[in-house]
Amino acid sequence: xxxxxxxxxxxxxxxxxxxxxxxxxxHTNIAVLSALSNSKIKFISTRHEQVAAHIADGYARARKTxxxxxxxxxxxxxxxxxxxxxxxxxxxxxxxxxxxxxxxYYGKHPHQEVNLHADAAQSEIYRPFVKRVWRVERPDLFPxxxxxxxxxxxxxxxxxVLVSVPMDIFSMQVDTQLFECLSRHTRALSAxxxxxETAERIVRALADAHSPVVQAGGGVILADAAEEFRAFVxxxxxxxxxSLMGKGVLPDDHxxxxxxxxxxxxxxxxxxxxxxxxxxxxxxxxxxxDCSSWEPEYTFSFPPAKLIHIDIDPSEIGxxxxxxxxxxxxxxxxxxxxxxxxxxxxxKGRSSEALQREIAAYRAxxxxxxxxxxxxxxxxxRPERILSTVRAVLPRDAIITTDVGWNKNGVGQQFPIFxxxxxxxxxxxxxxxxxAPAAIGAKIACPDRVVVALVGDGGFGQxxxxxxxxxxxxxPVVWIIMNNxxxxxxxxxxxxxxxxxxxxxxxxxxxxxxxxxxxxxxxYGLDGVRIESAAQFKPVLEAAVASGRPCVIDVAMMNExxxxxxxxxxxxxxSPDRRVHHAAVN
Length: 586
Fold this sequence. Notes:
With about 575 residues, the protein is of the alpha/beta class. The protein is built from 22 helices and 22 strands. The N and C termini lie far apart (about 70 Å).
């Protein structure tokens, strides 16, 4: 029996357990949309493809699944590219299915084809950042290709893949047996682990170390290994530093949590890492932001320190630092072995009350430094007061999305996260415009949890059309806009090094330009409140969370830099003869 590929594709996705598809219509994908109209899969229509990709990204992170994006050709695919690249650099599994020009028109430059330098080149646009690109050349190959796409997206180091499908192939018929036989193939691959010998080397090295430190990355969350991770560090008594992407892997109120390293890390945390004699990196790339531009006098120093590195991606092991013990493994499997071996070698476990007292004292001092700012009644508000108020209102397991700027850097440094996987942030690509739409995806994925987007006005202004999707789908996210009328972090950099914030602040006729984002939200049919005083913020936020409705809260904020003792080598590039970082911009 033969049926249309578009119809069989939808049936295949249903059988895989796909519940949502995110995207935007176009003349190349309407055969698929037509098939979806009779499906139990819910199509989440957006007003821009970048919004679709970011929503899908947030959904995949919160649901711990592979997201599906449906795109049009040409401008649709290029619009989505930033969101897909963001997912790629944060190792988020995603299958992008894109319509393409009819196969018999390749090279003739039909409507919206990308072919200025190479015929049928649309799929090549994604090749530098996705795990693989397929361009479907024959209808009978499509079933195998889509199955391989899902397998590759979720296996090894996860990430997006692209399947580019000529629109005529969507409308061709193939034998149903080609799809039906796919059901005999496994839907999940067993992940690699480590052997007991390697685990024993690792455990003994950490046990014999004078000042060991764990550097935890987002790979622990991706591997769903937070429980195994906590058991290991508890048993071995290891202090835990983390990358931005690793925030929350161990609750911020756990007695062994140090905090975030690197650019926006504190001196205490960075020094603990710099002076460690053994560091074990778990699911982290040791990226520039987390390692103070890899300069040994600030965060990590290899040598003299020795590094143990476990990651699912072999290309990351030794990329930035020499490794004494390296293992390619899934972290959930590896940590299970490490826990078993650690309990065999040290049945009673290991701990250091002195270390825990030191960490507690540091936290108390750091918290005390924030108290004056958190209680400041000034308006525009201090950013520290915004963050502390949000933390006080939200439940421990609330999902937070951030963007870039104060909201991301300040949250990483100052905002406690208590539930693993509850902070979604654009780490690898640092994409402005991620946080606001990603919150929609997270709420769709976890409808019973509170979801709040903490974003700047620069980031929110990138993709405000995502409010239409929230209204149409009735997704009750709360967006808190930390509004300083600027691309504040960059403005602070330019001011510190060049004495001006030209091109970074929002002005009209020389005066601050205020966009009424609350009014925009109301125009879309959502709730919107513009805060007028510091005292007003908390009751408005409490009401928004309790309402079960989508709501935008616009909060005027001082443009103050995130305090940091970390280092970024662009400071040396801009001001080689001065020690400057960021400056306040009024």
